[in-house]
Amino acid sequence: MSLSVGIVGLANAGKSTLFNALASRRLSETAPRPFTTIDPHEAVVPVHDEDFHRLCDLIKPEKCVPATVTFIDIAGLVKDAHKGEGLGNQFLGKIREVDAIVHVVRAFSDEKVSHPHTSHPVGSEHQILEDIELVNLELELGGIEKKPTIYVLNVDEEKVNQVGQLTKLIEEKFKGEVLAIAGKLEEEMIDLDNVEKAEMFKMLQWERSGLERLILEAYKLLDLITFYTIKGEKEVSAWSLKKGETALDAAGRVHTDFAKKFIKAEVINVKSLLDIGSWKDAKEKGRVGLEGKDYVVQDKDVIEFKVGQ
Ligand SMILES: Nc1nc2c(ncn2[C@@H]2O[C@H](COP(=O)(O)OP(=O)(O)OP(=O)(O)O)[C@@H](O)[C@H]2O)c(=O)[nH]1
Ligand SMILES: [Mg+2]
Protein backbone atom coordinates (compact mmCIF):
# COMPACT_ATOMS: atom_id res chain seq x y z
CA MET A 1 0.00 0.00 0.00
CA SER A 2 1.29 3.35 -0.93
CA LEU A 3 -0.59 6.23 0.58
CA SER A 4 -2.08 8.26 -2.26
CA VAL A 5 -2.45 12.00 -2.29
CA GLY A 6 -4.28 14.03 -4.93
CA ILE A 7 -3.09 17.53 -5.77
CA VAL A 8 -5.96 19.92 -6.42
CA GLY A 9 -6.29 23.66 -6.84
CA LEU A 10 -7.23 26.36 -9.27
CA ALA A 11 -5.57 26.55 -12.67
CA ASN A 12 -2.12 28.15 -12.48
CA ALA A 13 -1.81 27.74 -8.70
CA GLY A 14 1.46 25.85 -9.09
CA LYS A 15 0.24 22.26 -8.73
CA SER A 16 2.49 20.76 -11.39
CA THR A 17 5.43 22.78 -10.12
CA LEU A 18 4.98 21.26 -6.67
CA PHE A 19 4.33 17.83 -8.17
CA ASN A 20 7.57 17.92 -10.16
CA ALA A 21 9.48 19.01 -7.09
CA LEU A 22 8.01 16.06 -5.20
CA ALA A 23 8.86 13.67 -8.01
CA SER A 24 12.36 15.19 -8.31
CA ARG A 25 11.73 15.05 -12.03
CA ARG A 26 9.92 17.26 -14.47
CA LEU A 27 7.10 14.86 -15.24
CA SER A 28 4.38 17.47 -15.65
CA GLU A 29 4.64 20.43 -17.95
CA THR A 30 4.38 23.77 -16.18
CA ALA A 31 3.59 27.06 -17.87
CA PRO A 32 2.20 30.49 -17.00
CA ARG A 33 -1.08 29.73 -18.74
CA PRO A 34 -4.06 27.98 -17.21
CA PHE A 35 -4.84 24.35 -18.13
CA THR A 36 -1.29 23.34 -18.85
CA THR A 37 -1.93 19.97 -17.32
CA ILE A 38 -4.37 17.89 -19.29
CA ASP A 39 -3.73 14.25 -18.45
CA PRO A 40 -3.22 13.25 -14.85
CA HIS A 41 0.31 12.28 -13.85
CA GLU A 42 1.38 10.06 -10.99
CA ALA A 43 4.65 10.00 -9.10
CA VAL A 44 5.72 7.49 -6.45
CA VAL A 45 7.81 9.46 -3.97
CA PRO A 46 10.05 7.82 -1.36
CA VAL A 47 9.50 8.96 2.21
CA HIS A 48 12.62 10.49 3.69
CA ASP A 49 13.46 8.63 6.89
CA GLU A 50 16.81 8.90 8.67
CA ASP A 51 16.30 5.71 10.67
CA PHE A 52 15.58 3.78 7.51
CA HIS A 53 18.80 5.02 5.94
CA ARG A 54 20.73 4.07 9.07
CA LEU A 55 19.18 0.62 9.06
CA CYS A 56 20.21 0.17 5.42
CA ASP A 57 23.73 1.30 6.26
CA LEU A 58 23.87 -1.24 9.07
CA ILE A 59 22.49 -4.22 7.16
CA LYS A 60 23.90 -3.32 3.74
CA PRO A 61 21.34 -5.36 1.82
CA GLU A 62 21.24 -5.71 -1.95
CA LYS A 63 18.14 -3.55 -2.03
CA CYS A 64 16.61 -0.83 0.17
CA VAL A 65 12.93 -0.19 -0.44
CA PRO A 66 11.60 2.94 1.28
CA ALA A 67 7.98 3.62 2.15
CA THR A 68 6.35 5.70 -0.56
CA VAL A 69 3.60 8.21 -1.12
CA THR A 70 1.93 8.39 -4.53
CA PHE A 71 1.10 11.91 -5.66
CA ILE A 72 -1.38 12.57 -8.45
CA ASP A 73 -1.32 15.82 -10.39
CA ILE A 74 -4.54 16.72 -12.16
CA ALA A 75 -5.83 19.56 -14.33
CA GLY A 76 -6.69 22.82 -12.58
CA LEU A 77 -10.19 23.44 -11.34
CA VAL A 78 -12.19 26.54 -12.18
CA LYS A 79 -15.49 27.94 -11.03
CA ASP A 80 -18.33 25.65 -12.13
CA ALA A 81 -15.96 22.74 -12.71
CA HIS A 82 -18.72 20.47 -11.39
CA LYS A 83 -20.89 21.59 -14.32
CA GLY A 84 -18.13 20.66 -16.72
CA GLU A 85 -16.32 23.99 -16.96
CA GLY A 86 -12.59 23.68 -17.61
CA LEU A 87 -10.77 20.39 -17.55
CA GLY A 88 -10.38 19.55 -13.89
CA ASN A 89 -13.83 18.06 -13.63
CA GLN A 90 -12.91 15.12 -15.83
CA PHE A 91 -10.35 14.05 -13.30
CA LEU A 92 -12.31 14.50 -10.12
CA GLY A 93 -12.83 10.74 -10.32
CA LYS A 94 -9.12 10.33 -9.61
CA ILE A 95 -9.51 12.43 -6.48
CA ARG A 96 -12.35 10.24 -5.25
CA GLU A 97 -9.91 7.37 -4.73
CA VAL A 98 -7.11 9.14 -2.85
CA ASP A 99 -6.41 8.99 0.89
CA ALA A 100 -5.70 12.69 1.28
CA ILE A 101 -5.79 15.94 -0.63
CA VAL A 102 -3.09 18.51 -1.09
CA HIS A 103 -4.84 21.71 -2.00
CA VAL A 104 -2.39 24.10 -3.64
CA VAL A 105 -3.30 27.75 -3.22
CA ARG A 106 -1.71 30.52 -5.20
CA ALA A 107 -0.02 32.92 -2.79
CA PHE A 108 2.99 34.00 -4.88
CA SER A 109 3.13 37.24 -6.79
CA ASP A 110 4.15 37.12 -10.40
CA GLU A 111 2.58 39.31 -13.06
CA LYS A 112 3.49 36.86 -15.77
CA VAL A 113 1.31 34.18 -14.26
CA SER A 114 -2.36 34.99 -14.67
CA HIS A 115 -4.93 34.21 -12.05
CA PRO A 116 -8.02 32.54 -13.52
CA HIS A 117 -10.67 34.76 -11.94
CA THR A 118 -9.89 36.92 -8.94
CA SER A 119 -10.80 40.58 -8.61
CA HIS A 120 -8.58 40.96 -5.54
CA PRO A 121 -4.87 41.68 -5.63
CA VAL A 122 -3.03 38.42 -6.20
CA GLY A 123 -1.34 37.32 -3.00
CA SER A 124 -3.83 39.14 -0.76
CA GLU A 125 -5.71 37.42 2.01
CA HIS A 126 -9.02 38.00 0.17
CA GLN A 127 -7.80 36.26 -2.95
CA ILE A 128 -6.36 33.35 -1.01
CA LEU A 129 -9.45 32.71 1.08
CA GLU A 130 -11.75 33.12 -1.91
CA ASP A 131 -9.69 30.60 -3.93
CA ILE A 132 -9.87 28.03 -1.16
CA GLU A 133 -13.62 28.46 -0.83
CA LEU A 134 -14.11 28.14 -4.55
CA VAL A 135 -12.13 24.94 -4.88
CA ASN A 136 -13.71 23.40 -1.78
CA LEU A 137 -17.15 24.20 -3.16
CA GLU A 138 -16.31 22.62 -6.51
CA LEU A 139 -15.02 19.50 -4.77
CA GLU A 140 -18.18 19.30 -2.72
CA LEU A 141 -20.47 19.86 -5.69
CA GLY A 142 -18.37 17.38 -7.65
CA GLY A 143 -19.31 14.78 -5.05
CA ILE A 144 -15.92 14.41 -3.40
CA GLU A 145 -16.42 13.54 0.24
CA LYS A 146 -14.45 15.53 2.77
CA LYS A 147 -10.98 14.05 3.06
CA PRO A 148 -7.96 14.90 5.17
CA THR A 149 -6.61 18.03 3.53
CA ILE A 150 -3.30 19.84 3.60
CA TYR A 151 -3.47 23.38 2.28
CA VAL A 152 -0.22 24.32 0.61
CA LEU A 153 0.24 28.04 0.35
CA ASN A 154 2.47 28.38 -2.67
CA VAL A 155 4.42 31.44 -1.59
CA ASP A 156 7.42 33.48 -2.69
CA GLU A 157 10.51 32.10 -1.01
CA GLU A 158 10.97 34.98 1.42
CA LYS A 159 7.45 34.42 2.74
CA VAL A 160 7.88 30.80 3.79
CA ASN A 161 8.48 31.73 7.42
CA GLN A 162 6.15 34.74 7.42
CA VAL A 163 2.62 33.52 7.02
CA GLY A 164 1.84 32.47 10.58
CA GLN A 165 -1.28 34.61 10.90
CA LEU A 166 -2.75 33.49 7.63
CA THR A 167 -1.93 29.88 8.43
CA LYS A 168 -3.89 30.11 11.67
CA LEU A 169 -6.81 31.72 9.94
CA ILE A 170 -7.00 29.02 7.28
CA GLU A 171 -6.60 26.23 9.82
CA GLU A 172 -9.49 27.58 11.84
CA LYS A 173 -11.73 28.42 8.92
CA PHE A 174 -11.23 25.34 6.79
CA LYS A 175 -10.18 22.70 9.33
CA GLY A 176 -7.08 21.44 7.61
CA GLU A 177 -3.34 21.57 8.02
CA VAL A 178 -1.52 24.46 6.36
CA LEU A 179 2.02 24.55 5.02
CA ALA A 180 3.79 27.40 3.27
CA ILE A 181 6.00 26.13 0.47
CA ALA A 182 7.97 28.01 -2.19
CA GLY A 183 6.97 25.72 -5.03
CA LYS A 184 9.08 27.22 -7.75
CA LEU A 185 12.24 27.29 -5.68
CA GLU A 186 11.68 23.69 -4.60
CA GLU A 187 11.30 22.73 -8.24
CA GLU A 188 14.49 24.55 -9.15
CA MET A 189 16.29 22.63 -6.43
CA ILE A 190 15.72 19.39 -8.38
CA ASP A 191 18.96 20.22 -10.18
CA LEU A 192 21.06 20.64 -7.02
CA ASP A 193 23.02 17.86 -5.37
CA ASN A 194 22.63 17.16 -1.65
CA VAL A 195 25.53 19.38 -0.59
CA GLU A 196 24.19 22.29 -2.61
CA LYS A 197 20.73 21.70 -1.20
CA ALA A 198 22.06 21.73 2.37
CA GLU A 199 23.81 25.03 1.69
CA MET A 200 20.64 26.45 0.26
CA PHE A 201 18.61 25.42 3.31
CA LYS A 202 21.16 27.02 5.57
CA MET A 203 21.01 30.24 3.61
CA LEU A 204 17.21 30.26 3.69
CA GLN A 205 17.19 29.23 7.36
CA TRP A 206 15.05 26.19 6.61
CA GLU A 207 15.38 23.09 8.71
CA ARG A 208 14.17 20.84 5.94
CA SER A 209 12.60 21.13 2.52
CA GLY A 210 8.94 21.94 2.09
CA LEU A 211 8.51 18.63 0.37
CA GLU A 212 9.75 16.70 3.37
CA ARG A 213 7.47 18.75 5.60
CA LEU A 214 4.58 17.95 3.28
CA ILE A 215 5.13 14.21 3.34
CA LEU A 216 5.59 14.18 7.13
CA GLU A 217 2.41 16.20 7.51
CA ALA A 218 0.52 13.73 5.31
CA TYR A 219 1.77 10.91 7.53
CA LYS A 220 0.63 12.73 10.64
CA LEU A 221 -2.71 13.65 9.19
CA LEU A 222 -3.46 10.07 8.22
CA ASP A 223 -2.22 8.73 11.53
CA LEU A 224 0.39 6.55 9.92
CA ILE A 225 3.43 4.89 11.43
CA THR A 226 6.36 3.12 9.81
CA PHE A 227 7.67 -0.37 10.39
CA TYR A 228 10.64 -2.10 8.83
CA THR A 229 11.39 -5.60 7.61
CA ILE A 230 14.73 -7.22 6.89
CA LYS A 231 14.84 -10.07 4.39
CA GLY A 232 18.18 -11.81 4.98
CA GLU A 233 20.92 -9.80 3.36
CA LYS A 234 18.69 -9.14 0.40
CA GLU A 235 16.23 -6.44 1.24
CA VAL A 236 15.45 -3.86 3.89
CA SER A 237 11.99 -2.36 3.47
CA ALA A 238 9.97 0.38 5.14
CA TRP A 239 6.17 0.12 5.22
CA SER A 240 3.37 2.37 6.38
CA LEU A 241 0.63 1.27 8.71
CA LYS A 242 -2.25 3.00 10.48
CA LYS A 243 -1.57 3.73 14.13
CA GLY A 244 -3.30 1.03 16.20
CA GLU A 245 -3.00 -1.70 13.59
CA THR A 246 -1.67 -5.08 14.66
CA ALA A 247 1.18 -7.44 13.81
CA LEU A 248 -1.31 -9.39 11.69
CA ASP A 249 -2.19 -6.26 9.70
CA ALA A 250 1.51 -5.56 9.24
CA ALA A 251 2.08 -9.12 8.01
CA GLY A 252 -0.69 -8.67 5.47
CA ARG A 253 0.87 -5.47 4.26
CA VAL A 254 4.08 -7.33 3.42
CA HIS A 255 2.48 -10.42 1.91
CA THR A 256 -1.06 -11.84 1.99
CA ASP A 257 0.48 -15.23 2.69
CA PHE A 258 2.25 -13.84 5.76
CA ALA A 259 -1.10 -12.93 7.26
CA LYS A 260 -2.65 -16.31 6.45
CA LYS A 261 0.24 -18.30 7.88
CA PHE A 262 1.19 -15.95 10.70
CA ILE A 263 2.69 -17.63 13.75
CA LYS A 264 4.64 -14.99 15.66
CA ALA A 265 6.43 -11.71 15.10
CA GLU A 266 9.88 -10.90 16.42
CA VAL A 267 10.02 -7.20 17.19
CA ILE A 268 12.60 -4.63 18.18
CA ASN A 269 12.58 -0.86 17.97
CA VAL A 270 14.90 0.38 15.23
CA LYS A 271 16.86 2.61 17.60
CA SER A 272 17.67 -0.33 19.90
CA LEU A 273 18.72 -2.43 16.92
CA LEU A 274 20.95 0.37 15.62
CA ASP A 275 22.50 0.77 19.09
CA ILE A 276 23.16 -2.93 19.51
CA GLY A 277 24.44 -3.28 15.98
CA SER A 278 23.09 -6.63 14.83
CA TRP A 279 19.96 -8.74 14.95
CA LYS A 280 21.92 -11.68 16.31
CA ASP A 281 23.34 -9.70 19.23
CA ALA A 282 19.95 -8.16 19.92
CA LYS A 283 18.43 -11.63 20.14
CA GLU A 284 21.19 -12.94 22.38
CA LYS A 285 20.70 -10.02 24.71
CA GLY A 286 17.00 -10.79 24.89
CA ARG A 287 16.08 -7.46 23.33
CA VAL A 288 13.95 -8.88 20.53
CA GLY A 289 10.37 -9.37 21.71
CA LEU A 290 8.18 -12.26 20.62
CA GLU A 291 4.68 -11.03 19.84
CA GLY A 292 1.38 -12.55 18.76
CA LYS A 293 -0.98 -11.42 16.04
CA ASP A 294 -2.80 -8.92 18.27
CA TYR A 295 0.35 -6.98 19.13
CA VAL A 296 -0.18 -3.30 18.32
CA VAL A 297 2.69 -2.27 16.09
CA GLN A 298 4.66 0.73 17.33
CA ASP A 299 6.21 3.39 15.16
CA LYS A 300 9.68 2.32 13.97
CA ASP A 301 9.40 -1.31 14.94
CA VAL A 302 11.64 -3.69 13.03
CA ILE A 303 9.65 -6.88 12.54
CA GLU A 304 10.58 -10.38 11.51
CA PHE A 305 7.51 -12.48 10.77
CA LYS A 306 7.54 -16.15 11.65
CA VAL A 307 5.20 -17.90 9.26
CA GLY A 308 4.11 -21.50 8.78
CA GLN A 309 4.38 -23.56 5.63
N1 LIG B 1 6.94 33.12 -9.08
C1 LIG B 1 6.45 31.90 -8.90
N2 LIG B 1 5.93 31.26 -9.94
C2 LIG B 1 5.42 30.03 -9.75
C3 LIG B 1 5.42 29.40 -8.47
N3 LIG B 1 4.85 28.18 -8.60
C4 LIG B 1 4.50 28.06 -9.89
N4 LIG B 1 4.84 29.17 -10.59
C5 LIG B 1 4.66 29.43 -12.02
O1 LIG B 1 3.27 29.50 -12.26
C6 LIG B 1 2.95 28.92 -13.53
C7 LIG B 1 1.89 27.88 -13.33
O2 LIG B 1 2.44 26.80 -12.61
P1 LIG B 1 1.96 25.30 -12.85
O3 LIG B 1 2.71 24.45 -11.88
O4 LIG B 1 1.97 24.95 -14.27
O5 LIG B 1 0.43 25.46 -12.35
P2 LIG B 1 -0.74 24.37 -12.33
O6 LIG B 1 -1.49 24.62 -11.08
O7 LIG B 1 -0.21 23.01 -12.54
O8 LIG B 1 -1.58 24.86 -13.57
P3 LIG B 1 -2.61 24.04 -14.50
O9 LIG B 1 -2.02 22.71 -14.83
O10 LIG B 1 -2.74 24.91 -15.66
O11 LIG B 1 -3.85 23.97 -13.68
C8 LIG B 1 4.27 28.39 -14.09
O12 LIG B 1 4.78 29.35 -14.98
C9 LIG B 1 5.16 28.28 -12.87
O13 LIG B 1 6.54 28.44 -13.18
C10 LIG B 1 6.00 30.11 -7.37
O14 LIG B 1 6.07 29.63 -6.24
N5 LIG B 1 6.49 31.35 -7.65
MG1 LIG C 1 -0.57 21.63 -13.96
Automatic annotation (TrEMBL):
<dbReference type="InterPro" id="IPR027417">
    <property type="entry name" value="P-loop_NTPase"/>
</dbReference>
<dbReference type="Pfam" id="PF01926">
    <property type="entry name" value="MMR_HSR1"/>
</dbReference>
<dbReference type="GO" id="GO:0005524">
    <property type="term" value="F:ATP binding"/>
</dbReference>
<dbReference type="InterPro" id="IPR004095">
    <property type="entry name" value="TGS"/>
</dbReference>
<dbReference type="InterPro" id="IPR023192">
    <property type="entry name" value="TGS-like_dom_sf"/>
</dbReference>
<dbReference type="InterPro" id="IPR012676">
    <property type="entry name" value="TGS-like"/>
</dbReference>
<dbReference type="GO" id="GO:0005525">
    <property type="term" value="F:GTP binding"/>
</dbReference>
<dbReference type="GO" id="GO:0005737">
    <property type="term" value="C:cytoplasm"/>
</dbReference>
<dbReference type="Pfam" id="PF06071">
    <property type="entry name" value="YchF-GTPase_C"/>
</dbReference>
<feature type="domain" description="TGS">
    <location>
        <begin position="223"/>
        <end position="307"/>
    </location>
</feature>
<keyword id="KW-0460">Magnesium</keyword>
<dbReference type="GO" id="GO:0016887">
    <property type="term" value="F:ATP hydrolysis activity"/>
</dbReference>
<keyword id="KW-0547">Nucleotide-binding</keyword>
<keyword id="KW-0067">ATP-binding</keyword>
<dbReference type="InterPro" id="IPR013029">
    <property type="entry name" value="YchF_C"/>
</dbReference>
<dbReference type="InterPro" id="IPR006073">
    <property type="entry name" value="GTP-bd"/>
</dbReference>
<feature type="domain" description="OBG-type G">
    <location>
        <begin position="3"/>
        <end position="201"/>
    </location>
</feature>
<dbReference type="InterPro" id="IPR012675">
    <property type="entry name" value="Beta-grasp_dom_sf"/>
</dbReference>
<protein>
    <submittedName>
        <fullName>GTP-dependent nucleic acid-binding protein</fullName>
    </submittedName>
</protein>
<dbReference type="InterPro" id="IPR031167">
    <property type="entry name" value="G_OBG"/>
</dbReference>
